[in-house]
Design goal:
The N and C termini lie far apart (about 90 Å). The protein has 3 domains: about 80 residues, no CATH class; about 190 residues, Beta Barrel (AttH-like fold); about 150 residues, AttH-like domain (AttH-like fold, Beta Barrel), CATH 2.40.370. It is built from 7 helices and 25 strands. The radius of gyration is 29 Å and the shape is globular. By secondary structure, the chain is of the alpha+beta class. Helices cover about 15% and strands about 45% of the residues. Strands 18-17-16-15-25-24-23-22-19 form a 9-stranded antiparallel sheet, with no helix packed on it. It has an 8-stranded antiparallel barrel with strand order 3-4-5-6-10-11-13-14.
Length: about 500
């Protein structure tokens, strides 16, 4: 009888029957989906490998959560790069205090291999967290016996002292095996300071170059100080010493090249002492500076390109410098002047870069791009990193920096066109930024000579654009970030190649 009624209904009103069948099918499909979701949520709630506590979980970009839980081959090497920086400067930053009450880093179910005393290896699953922070997000385990509290390593991870932070990000390196013995390897501490009227400034570099750390091959250190006054030729002072007179560390930022030194004080300030003589004239120079980095105004370090060994960190993106500079018996005092410090290392044969750092009112920004010799066909975007008094503010990726070559600079009797103005623009969602540079002074050096500006160890770079251009000028920032207009102008230094 039911089948008869169904056939009669289908022949009398076929479209109505089809519509009712479609609606019934959709209802069944929705019910199946809902039941599947409910079953998945129930399974996940019982999953011992899920991290507990907190309202939001931050994972590496593009990660399949199931792969991380099951430990598949695709999940072996997932990690969050610069996790400490992300924790301190993003998730637990002062600017988010109104919406974030606590944050906690955790490693859950990481695949490790344990080698036993008898030489056998066993696959193990390891987890880690910081007890006080895990408790703050409500995920503390029930401790049946003993103590579960922070140790010194935990404290140093999430709350290092200024001196500990400098040691962690600003220590020196030895060349890795793949580039050991490469004559273009170099690493250096770099400082700059500018007078209040922006007419006088100094660049100070402590450079290691060659087969650094290898007692069987030659390497050494150089102290390089260039003094600039707007509208006048730069004065260059150097001191070059062999490896026996060099002391550096891979666990802290302290460095000695003969009597010249960079030391990090217990309060995190840099004490810089340099002794050198003017090229040609032999006039002695003695420099003593104390560089005080602004809290939170640092770039944590990165390998800024692929294909070559290269690294870069800025421990003092915004700093105050005080001290004295004496050339012969004529001395100049600095008292709370604008300062800056960065640290570079790597192999530099064929490598060029775009770089700049400036204050712009309450903002300080850093931009750059490293271009290896095989990058002519595909130029990577720049990075533009912005901080304010609360620390990290934003990161942009302008595609190009547009130069107006309205200046000329004389290099070894040859006239080189150098920039008079530059601009870069980027849009990231609702955030926009525009940086405009007005160049007030430019000097250039020929990297093919042994007196290359960045040190004698870099003379073997073989660049297609061999003229290294250092510029001083004013920078203006405009745009909008997080709904707040950006506006500011200040002094800065910039570098490019011609």
């Amino acid at each position: 009888m039911i089948w008869l009624l169904a056939r009669r209904n289908l022949t009398i009103a076929p479209w109505r029957t089809v519509f009712l069948l479609f609606g019934f099918s959709m209802g069944v499909a929705v019910m199946i989906v809902l039941l599947s979701i409910g079953e998945a949520l129930l399974d996940q709630a019982k999953d011992e490998r899920l991290v507990g506590g907190g309202a939001i979980t931050v994972l590496p970009e593009g990660v399949d959560v199931e792969v991380m839980k099951t430990g598949g081959l695709g999940g072996l090497f997932f990690s969050i790069d610069h996790a400490r920086f992300i924790h301190r400067q993003l998730l637990a930053a002062p600017r988010l205090q109104d919406v974030v009450s606590a944050t906690s880093p955790q490693i859950e179910g990481k695949l490790l291999y344990l080698r036993t005393a008898d030489g056998r290896e066993r696959a193990v699953r390891a987890s880690a967290d910081i007890p006080s922070l895990t408790a703050a997000v409500g995920a503390a385990p029930d401790v049946m016996q003993g103590r579960w509290s922070d140790d010194e390593g935990d404290r140093r991870w999430f709350a290092p002292t200024p001196a500990e932070l400098r040691a962690d990000i600003d220590a020196f390196h030895t060349p890795p095996a793949e580039v050991r013995g490469d004559p273009s390897w170099a690493e250096w501490h770099y400082f700059n300071v500018i007078s209040r009227d922006r007419r006088r400034w100094a660049f100070v570099s402590f450079i290691l170059a060659g087969a650094v750390g290898d007692s069987s091959r030659p390497w050494g250190g150089q102290v390089l100080v260039t003094l600039h006054e707007q509208g006048r030729p730069a004065r260059r002072f150097t001191s070059t010493l062999p490896s026996r007179d060099v002391r550096f560390s891979t666990i802290d930022a302290n460095l000695a090249i003969g009597p010249s030194r960079v030391d990090v004080r217990p309060d995190g300030d840099y004490a810089v002492h340099a002794e050198a003589r003017e090229d040609g004239a032999g006039t002695p120079l003695v420099l003593d500076l104390v560089v005080h980095p602004a809290p939170g105004a640092y770039f944590p370090g990165a390998a800024v390109t692929s294909g070559v060994v290269s690294g870069y960190v800025v421990p003092a993106l915004r700093a105050q410098a005080s001290g004295r500079l004496c050339v012969a018996r004529e001395c100049t005092s600095y008292d709370g002047m604008q300062g800056y410090h960065d640290h570079n290392w790597g192999v530099w044969r064929g490598v060029t870069w775009e770089w700049g750092a400036a204050r712009a009112g309450r903002y300080t920004f850093l931009y750059g791009r490293v271009e290896p010799p095989d990058s002519i066909a595909s130029v990577q975007p720049l990075f533009l990193y912005v901080v304010d008094s609360a620390g990290f503010l934003g990161l942009f990726r302008p595609k190009v920096i547009r130069y107006d070559g309205g200046r000329t600079t004389l290099v070894n009797g040859r006239i080189i066109r150098t920039p008079s103005r530059a601009e870069m623009v980027d849009v990231r969602g609702s955030d926009t930024v525009r940086i405009t540079l007005h160049i007030e002074d430019a000097t250039a050096s020929d990297t093919r000579s042994s007196a290359a500006e960045r040190g004698e160890g870099l003379a073997a770079r073989r660049l297609a654009r061999p003229y290294f251009v250092q510029m001083k000028g004013t920078a203006t920032i405009s745009g909008r970030m997080r709904g707040t207009p950006l506006a500011g102008t200040g002094a800065g230094f910039f570098e490019t190649y011609r």
